[in-house]
C-alpha cells in the first residue's frame, strides 16, 4: 500500500540547501586556515566551494517564480546544463 501524499514546502527545502551551503563554506574556510592543508588539497577545497555554490544556486532556483529563467541566470553553466539535460 502506498503512503499518502505529503506536500513539501519548497521554500523550506531551499532554506535547508542554503543552510547546508553555509555549513560547507564554514568547513572550507576552516580547512583553508591551515596552509599545509591548502597546499596539499587545493583541488578538494575548490570542490567544497563548488558544492556550496551549487547548493545556494539550487536554493535560489527553488525560490524563483520562473524556473526556466532562473536556470538561464544561474551563472553556473555546468549546473544549468545538468538541469536542462534530462538524461543526467
From TrEMBL:
It comes from the Bacteria. This is Uncharacterized protein. The lineage of its organism: Bacteria, Pseudomonadati, Pseudomonadota, Alphaproteobacteria, Sphingomonadales.
